Amino acid sequence: MNMKTRSKYQKLHPLEHDAVRWQDGFWGRLHQLCRETVLPSMRQALDEPENGAVFSNFYIAAGMRVGERLGTMWSDGDCYKYMEALTHIFGATREEAILEQLDELIDVIAGAQEDDGYISTPMQLSADKERWTNLHDHELYNMGHLLTAASVHHRITSQRNFLEIAIKLADYLHELFVPCPPDLAHFGFNPSNTMGSVDLYRVTGDERYLELAQTFVDMRGSRPGGKDQNQSLVSLREETRAVGHAVTAGYLYCGAADVVAETGDQELLEGLRRIWDNAVQSKMYITGGTSAQHHGASQRPEFGGRAGDVHEAFGYEYSLPNATAYNETCANIAHAMWNWRMLNLSGDAKYADIVELVIYNSMLSSMSLDGITFCYTNPLRWYGAEHPLLSQDAYERWFISRCYCCPTNTARTIALLHNWLYSVSDEGLWLHLYSSSSVTTTLRDGSVISLTQESDYPWDEVVRVTVEAAPAHEVALMLRVPGWCDAAELTINGQTSDSALKPGSYVEVNRIFDAGDVIELRLPLRPRLIKAHPKAEDIRNHVAVMRGPIVYCLEGVDLPAGVSILDVYAPDDMGLSASREDDLLGGVMAIKGVARHITERNGSKALYLEAGNEREENLEITLIPYYAWNNRGVGEMTVWLPRRY
Ligand code: FUB
Ligand code: ZN
Fold first, then answer.
1. Residue 406 Cβ contacting ligand 1 at under 6 Å
2. What does the alpha-carbon distance between residue 194 and residue 128 come to, in Å, rounded to a whole number?
3. Full-model pTM
4. Are 5 and 13 in contact (CB under 8 A)?
5. Tell me: the pLDDT tens digits for 465-475?
6. What are phi and psi of 315, to 5 degrees?
7. How far is the CA of 327 from the centre of ligand 2 (A)?
8. To test the ligand 1 pocket, which listed residue (139, 192, 328, 337) has its Cβ within 8 A of the most ligand atoms?
9. Pairing state between β 428-431 and 475-481
């Protein structure tokens, strides 16, 4: 076995799994919540018979319990994501009890695995189902998450118990898929299997698993009869658009980026870049959400529009409806995961901007502030108790659900986020995200650097980096200047740096550092009014408010009784200012300002009225971070406010 620490075609590389430790900051507090509340309560949910994901299936398949299959066909995959999250928490805490919980589950999973390596318990417990006959049985989704969870487990614990299960499974998959059976060409929905195969390749060094991952990528679009819904109509190498089911798309793009990192496949990378441009420039919500459609048709002019129906999917270019936005949490997280991979392939800060946008907004919005309940869709407007529910929408977040994919995805992303703060390259150490933490890592030349980062970002604008230990030679630190920040300032030991601080780039500080050196990056945070491309008709002539990476929203509960969000608009100057509210929503920076309130619509319920003659008055409003909405009961919410009534 030959654990790989470096992907040959990646510019930036991950740090050791234990290099970064959270301290008391925004993400440090969430990591603590994840450890103390989110995961223990999630374990209870995963033992609830009514939940969409359940551990009981493994016990039954292993012959350790008697009972019926419960949950969805993708239940196993969601259980593995929980185990992956727990493993990351073990990496941070080394708590024996976590290892024991994992070991117990791994023993059961080993017992559930078939002799030939196959494991997907919902299939194994369904006498009427046959392997590899229905895409929606989610076999590859379940297996892919196993491969990743086991690889992470081996990397962090050095144990082999989970890894052996993954190897046996991957050997089975290699034999089945690498010959490319034509009837399985488009098999794969939410294809975590490509990422999982590369993860296993990285911990074992076994080239067959990379070959398996390449096969999974190349299968798509390789035969007639593909569909946009699962990105099998056009091969990734020729693709120009982000289409179809947005989780399936995100996972596919992640897997392809992993293959590029190991093979340097430029044609595939070009495809991913084109898809990224299309997704980010015309199909992404301001929150980083990516799926505009619950159900619809794929827009594909080059096929005469006949690309088939889609659901839970990317929308048309510039079609970004608010109240009916789907924005599944898993899709948003997949988008962040893809951008994290593109960042490491290129070192381009535009990808880090999207990672940051998603994690603070359309990922965090999925979880209640107490870490116990979750949601699936993340719309940008809500009409309160009268909101017409579409598939998977809910009035309030829930503890269990018939589809439990999103909660475990959120938990594992919070649990692993310390891995996304930094990367190393031949040049030095890259700082992507800001939150109080400490890091000790080995640079590419074998020397060791230790830093602490102190910051109350995203509420506060100062990031203070103190060098704790550094090599006796020059080292480069690359600090990210976010794309939204046009007035960044940098000081080194109190002296203003004359380096260019271009928005959306990394500023390089290159010198021989001494212990005690302080680098201070100031990222001025002011409320910014954001407008959309004029083709985005749902939000044309609207504005949204952002401060740093945080998207704000207006909630009905913050309006005077009897005032509806529908009667509020944003005048040219709202006099917006931020204020720290320690008692609001767990402690947030709120934004206050003066909007206009239409006080009279002449009582008419008519769909159309002659414009004019509305009466209006000033209205003081308080905007809260979008991620914190729906924590104070069911009510109205909007991210976008019209410019004029
Ligand atoms: O496919 C299984 C789950 O249902 C996914 O995670 C969601 O995207 C939805 O398709
Ligand atoms: Zn989901």
1. no
2. 28
3. 0.98
4. yes
5. 999 999 999 99
6. -90, -170
7. 10
8. 328
9. parallel
